[in-house]
Amino acid sequence: MPEPEDLGFSGLFQDPEGFYEPEKQPTFAEHHMLSGQTLRVRLVGSHPLYGDLLWNAGRISSLYIEEKARDLVEGKDVLEIGAAAGVPSIVSAIKGARTVIMTDYPDLDLVQNMRENASSAASMIPAQTSLHVEGYKWGAPVEPLFAYLPSGATGFDLLIMADVIYSHREHENLIKTMQQTLKKSPDAVALVVFTPYQPWLLPKIANFFPLAEESGFQVTKVFEQMVDKVLFENDPGDETLRRTAFGYEIRWAKEQL
């Protein structure tokens, strides 16, 4: 029987050159701490959940945490959800948190990237601090997260939620995670920072805060800060809003304690 190439079919089942776009390679970004230290983090090459970006809210959250480290992180247990590159988690670990858990959607590329960033920052983290990485889907059971906490801990002192509430369809799951993980203490706080990259969705995004209040929390706006440039240059909408980061602290309402 003749071989396929003898019949002129040798290239029939081969993709033409350039048929697929080359896979984007990982990139790196730097975050400059107030202390003068520099974090260099790896970003995945391309990802539908935007793990290939160092988000403005992540940078600003990190600076806020560093500025208020004595109250927010020193000796505390910290959970970050939607961490992407994990800069706020790493800063919390460097600034002396007791336990830090860096989480994002349980996707192999995202989780492995977080692990690499945690590993590369290890020399900057005090020996008494434990930094862990875990895949976690918002609203899912939290027992795997609590397994990392020291004996006797009943929840997390600080939740870091940087640029996660833009996903307005996930608000109920985010609230559920807050309810299940934030320690029942007047000092425990969720730091929620976001930028309305799509300004026309701002009313839906901002609806997270009344929903939080209806769910047993007290919401306090703590800052409004404009960055030098927009993250997505070609997006439409009000540029001032797309350059503005809004920061909120969310705590348990008094009647919930």
TrEMBL record:
Query: What does the entry list as the binding residues for S-adenosyl-L-methionine?
Result: 55, 82-84, 104, 138, 162
Coiled-coil stretches are: none
- SUPFAM superfamilies (alphabetical): S-adenosyl-L-methionine-dependent methyltransferases
Gene Ontology CC terms, in alphabetical order: cytoplasm
Q: What PROSITE patterns does the entry give? A: SAM_MT_NNT1
List localization entries.
Cytoplasm
Q: Which Pfam families match?
A: Methyltransf_16 (PF10294)
Q: What does this protein do?
A: S-adenosyl-L-methionine-dependent protein methyltransferase that trimethylates the N-terminal glycine 'Gly-2' of elongation factor 1-alpha, before also catalyzing the mono- and dimethylation of 'Lys-3'.
The name this protein carries in UniProt is Protein N-terminal and lysine N-methyltransferase EFM7
Q: Which organism is it from?
A: Monascus purpureus (Red mold)
